[in-house]
Amino acid sequence: MNRRRFIAFTGAALASSLVGSTWERSLEHTRSSLNIKAIVFDAFPIFNPSPVFVLADQLFPGRGSALSEEWRARQFEYAWLRIAAHHYADFWQITHDALVFAANKLQLELTADKREALMNAYLKLTVWPEVPAALNRIKALGLQMAFLSNFTQRMLDANIKYAGLEKLFDHVISTDQVRTYKPDPLAYQLGIDVLGLKREEIMFAAFAGWDAAGAKLFGYPTFWVNRLKLPAEELDAVPDASGGSLLDLIQFLQTHAASA
Q1: Nearest to 162 by CA among 111, 125, 204
Q2: Which one of 42, 176, 211, 248 is the catalytic residue?
Q3: Burial of 204 by CB count in 10 Å (0-12 exposed, 13-18 middle, 19+ buried)?
């Protein structure tokens, strides 16, 4: 996941989202069949990880980009490898281990102070520009909102508090509760179990293409917040809609409400 694309997109996110939706529907009748009562978000449609990458540049001038890319890639590889090996560790531990590996691979001197600073940056992420207003609008539509993330509970709670979003979310769910990671169906099942709603009543808002595919394969109506404008994954699952920001998600929800 390229650090420069994250940073460049941060400033343009709101403007690009106003140009128009880039919805992709598998079938036109999908929307009319939706009966959405809650939106469940991955962490990254809400939180922008670019401060972590900026800090890496500051601590390792000229090498921060390489460190960030290796670290980010290894985070997800470790999560999935540990699940495949039935040797679980939570996402905070995985993030730490991935950072140590990335620094060792790039032969960077990762002192205790630098390691702690980079890790703690994952507890103080900023939000994307349109997020506060968009979340308030979704709340006004009468929908429940929840997180369903691979982040630990501590990571989620810290970032929600840092962003001042405590009053907007009805539930904050970490996949750590079932000691697994998305796209394991057991992880997505948490949304149903915690919200007490039917699968088809919960729309999942994903940041990554693989997460959008995983949620769709699980059976959730799925909106892909495709901030990086990436192509869809080849995983036999197409989200019900996609767009560049939460404003496109709101437009989709309002259009559905108008046609229901």
Answers
A1: 125
A2: 42
A3: buried
What does the pLDDT read at residue 254? 87
Q: What's the DSSP call for residue 150?
A: S
- Classified by CATH at the fold level, domain 3-48+125-259 comes out as Rossmann fold (3.40.50)
- Residue whose C-alpha is closest to residue 34's, from 22, 42, 44, 26: 26
Q: Which two tokens stand for residue 247?
A: 């404003």
CATH number of 50-121: 1.10.150.240
pLDDT in tens, 184-212: 999 999 999 999 999 999 999 999 999 99
In contact, 64 and 58? CB cutoff 8 Å:
yes
Domain boundaries, the chain: 3-48+125-259, 50-121
Catalytic annotation on 42?
yes
Tell how strand 126-127 and strand 47-48 pair up: antiparallel
